[in-house]
């Protein structure tokens, strides 16, 4: 009895010593989103890059290897789409080897439905592009005065981009490399353009009416109306009456698109056909996550999937066809992009909204094995960066707006005095004498290599602490390049190590 009590006490002491001595990081998932350019294109640069990740306790690397520019591995089957610098050096092979040596999981990140306007596939297969009601692709759009560069592809068309290009590319990567998960991004319709514009390609103009049963294929001309015996018009929907007008085939593309988006299920009834349009888009995006899961599991039976998604699936279902709650059977890691730019208000307000959002997301994510919210490090420093980029713009305009420069300078002067006294002095001198030539060059040099401390690390730490305080399993930081340029690795190391 006495022995047992002593033994128990000793065990307790040993346990508590052990617990303090080797406290494991509290977050199980410690991830970064990254671009291959950050890892360089030699063995030595890749090793140094992965060393940095390991030092900062990162245990999951999410590396983009299919972007709007092309693919970043030396594929033979998709050779024309390979980004030229990555034809000779097999960056994924070296990255995966070095990550696994250090216990870091590797997720390969794909831009799903966003291609570049000049990308190989967009050029070769214009018939696979998503089209607006006027029959034009997204590259015909102008956004904030600039030509829109991304070519959005139609997720629905079969045969098309999804089954002829995207899924085979993902499958090839899965077969070829010892990767831990496939990461979806841009798994949606475009959101920065008019959210109701896509897709009205020929395929979708035919498929939306089929999908929503706007006519019967066996009795295409039958109105299929039941008895109208109730006072409410929409109460008579169950017989799936024919919705398309008799002369549907004579409608132009614009007329068809307008009816599919703005029309009514019953003539004279609510303008409710938009519901089916949005539902169709959600279905197409979700169907893709299932199809790619099934295709990849055929060649790699244990492959997992992760996805970068928008913060609110109820809203993103309507606006971009991304109701990610429905991805759960086909995606194991859900990673909402809870970036500061996705919330209104100042930094402090954003922290409250972030916490509120994560609490909602926990409910939406309950069917996923893993829920790891993501934050964007670089965006936390808009207050410190924006006045300086504004001054740079004013200098490029010839420096005529002295008052504009003064106002921007005043917003950051105290931090500059501490972290870049040279630049502070040069800008002050310029304000006294706008002919002083030094300021512009000093500013460019500063922005190219911002000194440690100028971007307050505590802002990243507080954001990550707020994420962790919501009781999440993991967190993802966008991006390793942003961490490097804002000199935040020490802050990441401290946070992830806790
Ligand atoms: Zn389409």
Name the descriptors.
18 helices, two-stranded antiparallel ribbon, globular, alpha/beta, ten-stranded mixed β-sheet, 498 residues, 45% helix
Strand content: 5-15%
**Inertia-based shape:** globular
**Low-pLDDT stretches:** 16-21
Q: For the report, how would you describe the main beta sheet?
A: 10 strands, mixed
Ligand catalogue: zinc ion
How big is the Rg? Answer: 27 Å
Helical content class: 40-55%
Overall pLDDT level: 95
What's the helix count? 18
Number of strands: 14
Structural class: alpha/beta
- State the end-to-end distance: 39 Å
Could you explain how this protein is built, in words?
This protein is an alpha/beta fold. It is built from 18 helices and 14 strands. The strands form 3 sheets. Strands 1, 2, 3, 4, 9, 10, 11, 12, 13 and 14 form a 10-stranded mixed β-sheet that branches. Strands 5-8 form a two-stranded antiparallel sheet. The protein has a two-stranded antiparallel sheet with strand order 6-7. β11, α11 and β12 form a beta-alpha-beta unit. α12 crosses α13, α12 runs antiparallel to α15 and α14 runs antiparallel to α15. The longest helix has 27 residues. About 1% of the residues have low confidence. The protein binds zinc ion. Zinc ion binds next to α7.
